[in-house]
């Protein structure tokens, strides 16, 4: 397809006609490109998006790489054959639910390539999907080259994991990555693996798809806040956020102690960026670039101040569609063989072309595909817009199984105190004995040991740690997987222990009893008594979360849920 064959891909502020001194000049005698004293092209023209596409694709590939890396490292223990919530059992339940219906019904309810694979070794299937995703995303990240086939494969592979991931993949950023990845398919040429595919210019429809995405993400996040928790209206939410967010980092420890007026400023700034700035997208190029700068700056601040998985990194991706080649040119070297030089030459050819070349069949097909994409996104946006306008707005919800257009939001309510579930084990024969020594298990990143410094892991993500945050302000009956985890710890299960940072029974026989204790946590005061002792946290016991349990106590519980019973330690067989 030719660079000028798509109406929808024509540069913003077309290069084909320019006004000079109030009169239109035809491209037969185009104005020369501006040149610097060294007689080399000085600046890229505005309105083209060749370099934008490269930056977008590489940024998206980076997020895919992180997501598949998390999947490879954690999925076997979470949803594998003997995982906390086995995906094979989930798929069997889906089959049973649609018994008597065609196989297509189950497919559309849970779209995943798992339906095509052998279920006898789900761990292999999960690793295969993750490794394929890692390989493809690495290629795009390193080379900057992609086509529709590669991007479709990445999207389908990740969707296959999300749709069998159950609660572990229930976060808003999973749907956000799938929607972003779906748009990324149409950002690319069909076959060509070139960073500058001259016959496939970046579609304006796709670019506006990304802009529509970031508009809904930010506005949805802003509206859910002002509708969801009065602390966003009285400007006090940031008094609590740093301490009570799911997985704080070391910087949050210090930000929590900021002056009250700074927290009020933060909250007002949040409302400005989420409720007002999104409308800059529709006010022309300069305001659109300002929107992109402000949104990226906002996301960087969020990245610095907390471990929110790859959410904020991912939110930067659609913001990049606000910048054209002229705005992003500084990211690329100006050498004679560089991409920047090639784009300058393509822009020069475009200004010197007397008449556009006739559109061929490939151009027409591409145009039909892009228009169809626009119609699809517009149609699927109807319930999303209705939700945005509703006083009963719900966040992080998909209205279609492919998660092409979704609702978004974050921190619609802010918890005012932090509670944690601490898992403890003892080798004592009697859990009630006064001399029973209970030892704490430590998770990878969530608060536990008061002396342990908060971690800094974004964009990486520990799914179990995040779910433990939710479990702490719910009950274990609402989170049955936590008893499954307890049973695996009683058996010394290696896969489950790999999800933790510290096993207090390492090199010893697993505990006889496991219990869950409920604690209230607060940051220590920097420079205060507890901080000088090395404590980052001050904790106080609330009470039991679940009572002491032995492996045999869980046997019937496991059986009714069809969970594989962990192999008991040898002493339990005597």
Key terms for this structure?
globular; 21 helices; 8 strands; alpha+beta; disordered N terminus; endoplasmic reticulum; two-stranded antiparallel ribbon; 4-stranded antiparallel beta sheet; 8% strand; 574 residues
Short description:
The protein has 574 residues and is an alpha+beta fold.
Written account of the structure:
The chain has two domains: 50-350 and 361-389, no CATH class; 418-561, no CATH class. It has helices spanning 50-79, 87-97, 103-109, 122-143, 148-162, 172-187, 204-228, 230-233, 238-244, 250-255, 260-276, 285-305, 311-319, 325-328, 339-352, 361-389, 463-472, 481-490, 494-497, 529-532, 555-560, and strands spanning 18-20, 23-25, 418-426, 439-440, 442-443, 500-502, 513-523, 537-549. The chain has a four-stranded antiparallel sheet with strand order 4-3-7-8. The protein has a two-stranded antiparallel ribbon with strand order 1-2. Strands 5-6 form a two-stranded antiparallel ribbon. Strand 1 (18-20) and strand 2 (23-25) form a beta hairpin. Helix 1 (50-79) crosses helix 6 (172-187), helix 7 (204-228) crosses helix 13 and helix 7 runs parallel beside helix 16. It is globular. The model is unreliable at 1-11 and 13-41 (pLDDT under 50). It contains 21 helices and eight strands. It is 47% helix and 8% strand. With 574 residues, it is an alpha+beta fold.
